[in-house]
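hey so i finaly got around to running the thing on Redoxin domain-containing protein from Halobaculum litoreum. pasting the sequence first so u can double check i didnt mess up the copy paste, my clipboard has been acting weird all day
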Amino acid sequence: MAEFSLADALADGPVVLAFYPGVFSRTCTQELCELRDWKADLADLDAPLYGVSADTPWSLLAFMDEHDIQYPLVSGFNNSVVADFGVRRAEGIMRGIANRAVFVVDPSGTVTYTWKATEPLTFPDTDAVEAAVAEAAAGE
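ok and heres what it spat out for the 3d tokens, dont ask me to read them lol
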């Protein structure tokens, strides 16, 4: 396990951050596996994809092993990354977890694309994310 640094990740170009509520739930498993399969398309754009949740590092490692996830999953457990991007649930029984969202961050640290789920069982349009990554990379 290594500590995640957005600044370090941005040193090589734009990044994609995909926030999700939690591993091993039915919907998140579907989303993370779809992103795993989509990651091959994104590889041509040379932008790393990071999954981000409030899960513990150990549960993330177990999930990655079980579902052959080849991109990093970042733990927002006991740090502020979920809140920093404004996707931390503030109320209710599920408070503290991340809402489903995707951000493209350009090398300067500016968020150039945002998608936030407005209802359950919705996922980002990967074509729109790819276009945003290409645009962020072109602006380097």
